[in-house]
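Case study 2.
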Amino acid sequence: MISRRLVLLSPVLIWPAITCAESEIREYKGDYFYNFENAVFTPEGTEERWAVEGDMSVVERRRHDGSSGWGTSTVTVLGSLSPKGQFGNLGSCSRILKVIKVVKVPPCEAESEASS
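Prediction:
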């Protein structure tokens, strides 16, 4: 009786471990593209596309009216990767990059123009 219950509960106990498996936390450098419906990271030297989760507000530029805009920036972030799958808008991304911290952000174009 106990072994039968264990067999029935096994998938329930194992499922969280399977779905939550992520890589270790490490640094990633690449291009971050964002707009009103997408947040995609392309790692340097590849053509892969990873959906982005986490606070990237320090990278995203604001429009003059205060609304969020769109753009692409080369950034370095600290984060972890999901296993391969289909993620993001229409499943166009092969992984999810969970960003823990933005390590390096290029200066804003307006700031660099003002300093020259």
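Residues 2-19 form the longest helix (18 residues).
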